[in-house]
Amino acid sequence: MSEKSQYTQFHPRWYRRRVPVFWWLRRPSYLLFVLRELSSVFVAWFVVFLLLLVNAVAEGPEDYRRFQDWSATPGMLLLNVVALCFILLHAVTWLFTLSPHAMVVRLRGRRLPPALIGVGNLVAWMLASALVAFLILG
Amino acid sequence: MEPFLWLLFSAGGVLSALLIPAMLFLFGVAFPLGWVSPPGHAHLSAVLGHPVTRVVLLGLCVLALFHWAHRFRYALSDGLQLKHLDRAINLFCYGGALAGSAVAGYLLLAAW
Predict the structure, then answer these.
(1) Beta strands in B40-89 (DSSP E)
(2) A79 and A138 assigned to the same domain
(3) Among the four A22, A40, A52, A89, which has the fewest Cβ within 10 Å?
(4) Within-domain flag for A29
(5) What pLDDT was estimated at residue A10?
(6) Residue A93 within any structural domain of the chain
(7) Searching chain A, which residue's CA lies closest to the CA of residue B99?
(8) Looking at beta carbons, which residues of chain B come within 8 Å of A24?
(9) DSSP 3-state helix, strand, coil percentages of chain B (rounded to 5)?
(10) What percent of chain B has pLDDT over 90?
(11) Is A20 domain-assigned?
(12) Do A107 and A133 belong together in one domain?
């Protein structure tokens, strides 16, 4: 079989439409898609920021103070404001657009409507945020 | 392997959506701008001193990093059409997530 299939030496070229690199600027929905994908970069940035904070607290009060001063510099503040916008885009689209439709929750054989899962996610988000704020602020 | 990576991606997506906004708002914006007075070192040290806090934060770090890796990989390979660089992209994304997880594990478990 494999020997017989070698009767032609020239492979036909596949037809592929060329897509410009900036295809995602063409429609708002494409742009939103790319911004959502980019939000993951700021998720990773937050991990770095969090680990720097943890390390500063572990090192002692002096390092913690230095971390606070550093996070109040204009550059860092700007970065974190932008990061917060992207993180909110991630949270809102993930909790209220993606997961209500991706999650199939059945109750007594019936599928729960996506809107109800969205409400559940909102409650979970509020509870998690309240717990985080309570632990941090004491 | 691919289903497992998708699982990490979605677990990281949920956990980041639930936990990161509040933390980033407080430490990244509210405390530096003085909207809310930041906690003292003793209090934060006590919160971080609890093993449950550190295990939860480690889980958040690892899953969030793999969430980034998986999503950024597709953003590079499909969004910027760098499919021919897939090997390098995978190495950078998942390798970065693994290295970051190791650093997180060291800082949150070993070095504390």
Answers:
(1) none
(2) no
(3) A22
(4) yes
(5) 67
(6) no
(7) A48
(8) 79
(9) 90, 0, 10
(10) 83
(11) yes
(12) yes
The domain ranges of chain B are: 2-110
Say what the pLDDT of residue A88 is: 98
Helix (H/G/I), strand (E/B), else coil: A16: coil
Contacts of B17 in chain A (CB under 8 A): 90-91, 94-95, 125
In total, chain A counts a number of residues equal to 138
User: What average pLDDT does the segment A49-74 reach?
Assistant: 97
**Residue A2 to chain B, least CA–CA distance (Å):** 27
Q: How many residues does chain B have?
A: 112
Tell me whether 0.85 is exceeded by the ipTM: yes
- Residue A22 binned pLDDT confidence (cut-offs 50, 70, 90): confident
Do both A38 and A82 map to the same domain? yes
Q: Which of A18-27, A40-49, A71-80 has the lowest mean pLDDT?
A: A18-27
Q: What is the pLDDT of residue B90?
A: 95
Give the closest-approach CA distance of A93 to chain B in angstroms.
9
Are A84 and A108 in the same domain? no
Q: How many domains does chain A have?
A: 2
Instruction: Find, in chain B, the residue whose alpha carbon is nearest to that of A70.
Output: B32
A116 and A73 belong to one structural domain: no
Burial environment of residue B57 by CB neighbours within 10 A (0 to 12, 13 to 18, 19 or more): buried
Of residues A118, A43, A113, the one with CA closest to residue A84: A43
CATH architecture for segment(s) B2-110: Up-down Bundle (1.20)
The per-residue pLDDT for range B89-99, each reduced to its tens digit, is: 999 999 999 99
**Out of B47, B71, B111, closest to residue A37 by CB:** B71
Range(s) of the domain holding residue A55: 4-88
As beta bridge partners, residue A110 has: A107
